[in-house]
Write a structure and sequence with these properties.
Elements: H1 2-12, E1 17-18, E2 24-29, H2 43-62, E3 65-76, E4 85-95, E5 99-109, E6 116-129, E7 142-143, H3 147-168
Parallel strand pairs: 1-7
Antiparallel strand pairs: 2-4, 3-6, 4-5, 5-6
Length: 171
């Protein structure tokens, strides 16, 4: 199975890119219009920001348009308060043939104290789209350089197996 995946990428003739080439970061201050009556950032707004940050990493790696295919899960660990800065960090975890998984970590920063909290983690899968045909297109292979990148790569493969099993009813 592993050999087939490697051959597919070799056949595509695409040059690999390191994880570092996809890393993206965005920040935003939390304003009243984005909060609930308790002064906490709306979960739907967090999901929107996660999709945007993840798309940036996917675009950077694929060098093409991408569309969101799925969100495996999103965990809300701590709330983000009105007036805090929300920081989103994303990177490609694994590349398949025409799709790729991006991990996103969200942090809040209290502007008065400087305290930072990990608030959210999400895994988003994208499909690369050809700009002319609007059909899925091959994605460059991912070059893994660190032990953490290799672990994220392995875990992304496990999440994909579960996702496909749920989608197609296979065990």
């Amino acid at each position: 199975m592993k050999r087939k995946k490697e051959e597919r990428h070799a056949e595509s003739g695409l040059e690999g890119k390191p994880v570092s080439a996809s890393r993206s970061e965005m920040t935003e201050i939390v304003l009243p219009a984005q909060t609930n009556p308790l002064g906490k950032l709306l979960g739907g707004h967090v999901m929107h920001l996660v999709d945007m940050a993840a798309a940036m990493a996917a675009h950077r790696h694929s060098g093409s348009y991408v569309v969101t295919a799925s969100v495996d899960h999103i965990d809300f660990r701590n709330p983000v308060n009105l007036g805090e800065i929300v920081i989103l960090k994303s990177q490609v975890n694994r590349v398949f043939h025409t799709s790729l998984e991006v991990g996103v970590e969200v942090y809040s920063e209290n502007v008065l104290t400087g305290e930072k909290k990990h608030t959210t983690t999400a895994y988003v899968t994208f499909v690369a789209i050809d700009e002319h045909t609007r059909l899925p297109k091959p994605v460059p292979p991912l070059i893994l350089e660190t032990a953490e990148e290799k672990q994220r790569h392995r875990e992304a493969g496990e999440r994909r197996e579960v996702r496909l099993a749920l989608r197609y009813g296979k065990k």
